Amino acid sequence: GKRSIVVDMKQAEGVEVVRKLMSDADVVIQNFRPGAMERLGLGYEDVKAARAESLRPIIDRKLAAVARRS
After folding, report:
1. 6-27 burial: b if 16+ Cβ within 10 Å, else e
2. What is the pLDDT of residue 70?
3. Helices marked H in the chain — which ranges?
4. Is the full-model pTM beyond 0.90?
5. Are 4 and 35 in contact (CB under 8 A)?
6. Three-state DSSP class for 27?
7. pLDDT value at position 47?
8. Measured between alpha carbons, how far is 51 from 47 in angstroms, rounded to an integer?
9. How many whole angstroms from its chain centre is CA 65?
10. Is 35 left (phi over 0), alpha (psi -120 to 50) or beta?
C-alpha cells in the first residue's frame, strides 16, 4: 500500500509539490545537509507557518549520514 514520487526540488514546481505534501503531513523526515530545507523555503518554521490554521503539530526529523562537526 505504499506510494512514492520523484520530485526535482531544483525546480520551483518541485518545491511547490513538496510544500503541498508537507502542509498535510504529520511527520517530515529529510536527510539534506543542514540548512538545505531552509534555503528551499521548506524549513520547520516555513511549514509551521503554512499549517497555522491546523491544530495538529508537525514532527520534523533530520537524519545525518555524516556527523556534523562543531
Report:
1. eeeeeeeeebeebeeebeebee
2. 57
3. 12-23, 36-39, 44-50
4. no
5. no
6. strand
7. 81
8. 6
9. 17
10. left
Per-residue confidence of the chain (70 residues) as pLDDT tens digits?
788 889 999 999 999 998 888 877 778 888 888 889 899 988 888 887 877 766 566 666 666 665 556 5
SS3 23: helix
Q: Which residue's entry shows cell 520547520?
A: 44
pLDDT at site 66: 58
Q: DSSP labels for 35-46?
A: THHHHTT-SHHH
* 64, burial (CB in 10 Å: exposed 0-12, middle 13-18, buried 19+): exposed
How many CA atoms within 13 Å lie on the side-chain side of 37? 19
**Residue position matching grid coordinates 511527520:** 27
